[in-house]
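Q: I have two molecules that I believe assemble together. Could you output structure tokens for the complex as a whole instead of separate predictions?
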Amino acid sequence: MTRVHDMGGRFGDGHVTPDAEDTPVFPEDWQARALAVTLAAGSLGQWNLDISRHSRERLSPKDYSRFSYHEKWISALASLLVEKGVITLEELKTGESTGISDLATRCFKPSAVSESIAKGGPVNRPGPSSSFSVGQVVKTVLSAENQRTDGGHTRLPAYAAGKTGRIIAVHGCHVFPDSNAHGFGEDPKPLYSVAFSTTSLWGHAENPSDEVILDMWEPYLDAVNG
Amino acid sequence: MLDLPILGLHSFRMPHDHDHPHSLLPSDPALRVKALETLLIKKGLINPATLDEIIDTYENKIGPKNGAAVVARAWYDPEFRQYLLRDATAAVSEMGFYGRQGEHITALENTPETHNMVVCTLCSCYPWPLLGIPPAWYKSDAYRARTVREPRKVLADFGVKLPEGQSVRVWDSTAEMRYLVIPMRPSRTEGMTEAELATFVSRDSMIGTGLAGHS
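A: Yes, here they are, computed for all two components at once.
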């Protein structure tokens, strides 16, 4: 089974409402603060990108659905800070600090911001050689589940599970989120771009000549003979 | 001080689905952020000046004008276009646009045969160094849910109708590869400078929900 964030293909969401290109980046000040607090807390080094993504996905379905984007961020951050022992439940409840944290020495300094953003965090790594090549037909595993951790993080969307596609690009090895989100290390795996025809994904394809392309790690894929 | 009930918090050391510490924060999102920010400052874990610097970066320094400069150069300089299509990460890095949430870039070329569109169904992955923070609609449930199933109806929401015979490729950003669409160059732009060309490149045209030269 999957979680509510895995919404690709879902029915019932209504129209997309475009905005003007000059709409403010942060229409409300708290949205900007939510993003900045999340990035600053992330630089304390107590979790990685995949853990923080999974913390948003683990919001209850009710909260995930009613929260706006930045509300998801700040709420998942609060949960993560408690889970990792950076703050205590009591501190969260009362708003009163029990003292300066041992991690305060890692506090993200204003002078380090531009360099840190420019440096980024590449995820390509040395790793096993690729089993598949461009043009090869593959099938995704039947279930969009983390294969090691029950209810764990995965980047195989449910709509693309158990589907047949073809490899259109080989990207070398990238950090494997299904492992990295759960403390099992980066465990780099070959990453591919896989193209699926809309007729293979949907019972009522909007246009049979269209395709959907997903980036898939090798453990999500099986070879198709012939 | 916050006075809020504890709900179902009997086991909080491990990340269990039934424990949601955030429920201790105020329900109003602005107060929720303020409460957490204030606590983290008191504990010496975040610096308010750092927050201001991060916000200034994404409000004023990094945004769609970066991506527009890349597209304009690709239209202007055929050699750069080939470089961008072959190794976009290197090509945009040379223009100073490498960075957080843009460590691995692929450029997608729109042609009369193929129109490319980018989505992230699982969250809202987006090429930050090229386009900045994603717009609200990109993060909406409707865009995330519908784009992979009915991209042409989603395009209609943006007032875009593709010509007969042009197929759609939707790219679902499931990994750390970030995608930049190179829209087709509008007609009657011959002889223009890169800077002039860049004015035709909208944010939406680089996501694939718009066409260059159209608003």
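A: One point stands out. Residues 1-14 of chain B have pLDDT under 50 and may be disordered.
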